[in-house]
Amino acid sequence: MTDLKMDLLYSRERISTEITRLAQEIDRDYQDQEVLLVVVLKGSLLFAADLLRALKVSASIDFVRLASYGSETQASGIVEFRYNLETPIRDRNVIIVEDIVDSGYTLESLFNKLLHQQPRSLKICALLDKRARREVDIEADYVGITMEDGFVVGYGLDYNEKYRQFADIYLVKP
Ligand SMILES: O=P(O)(O)OC[C@H]1O[C@H](OP(=O)(O)OP(=O)(O)O)[C@H](O)[C@@H]1O
Ligand code: HPA
Ligand SMILES: [Mg+2]
């Protein structure tokens, strides 16, 4: 049961189709190389698991925990690093895995931090791209779905820590 009003926006089938395509693009770009997926917890958990399973290229995985939204639907602009990578990324092909790019603050701070550690390459793979709300100049290299404005939940995305468990993505009604 939910206490928010919401409409189905992207079905599990649509999500799966986009992830298959993203994995094909990554496989093509990194033929005969290895990649390290840097997964931004918590929201990207389900996306990263499905993307990892869809990849054919040799892939490792590590995690960072960033948070800026808390119980709000607007970016606070303050990105908190709650825990960090275990893996040294120097000379690695790093792909940041994000569930959603919204204001861009989260990705901007992570991207700059990782860039300082001198990876061989650094790319961004985002399931959802909400361009309407962008406040900083950052773009994902691999984008699942470019969406309209609106707050979404499900498939890892939360409102106040709830609804991450839904297999589909829903648009919260205002
Ligand atoms: O582009 P931005 O405006 O920075 O928003 C995107 C980020 O916000 C959400 O994380 P949140 O802070 O809610 O943490 P969570 O992943 O634990 O839910 C989302 O999962 C992205 O990481
Ligand atoms: O639309 C959203 N839903 C959930 N979390 C988010 N973090 C940024 N934008 C969103
Ligand atoms: Mg959140």
TrEMBL record:
Entry EC no(s): 2.4.2.8
One Gene Ontology term from the biological process aspect of the record: purine ribonucleoside salvage
Stored Pfam families: Pribosyltran
Keyword entries, A-Z: Cytoplasm, Glycosyltransferase, Magnesium, Metal-binding, Nucleotide-binding, Purine salvage, Transferase
Residues annotated as domain Phosphoribosyltransferase: 11-159
Reaction equations catalysed: GMP + diphosphate = guanine + 5-phospho-alpha-D-ribose 1-diphosphate; IMP + diphosphate = hypoxanthine + 5-phospho-alpha-D-ribose 1-diphosphate
UniProt GO MF annotations: guanine phosphoribosyltransferase activity; hypoxanthine phosphoribosyltransferase activity; magnesium ion binding; nucleotide binding
Predominant place of localization: cytoplasm
GO cellular component: cytosol
Pathway recorded for this protein: Purine metabolism; IMP biosynthesis via salvage pathway; IMP from hypoxanthine: step 1/1
Cofactor: Mg(2+)
Cell location: Cytoplasm
Family matches, as InterPro entries: HGPRT (IPR050408), Hxn_phspho_trans (IPR005904), PRTase-like (IPR029057), PRTase_dom (IPR000836)
The UniProt record lists the keyword Signal: no
Family statement drawn from the similarity comment of this UniProt entry: Belongs to the purine/pyrimidine phosphoribosyltransferase family.
Protein name: Hypoxanthine phosphoribosyltransferase
Organism: Geoalkalibacter ferrihydriticus DSM 17813
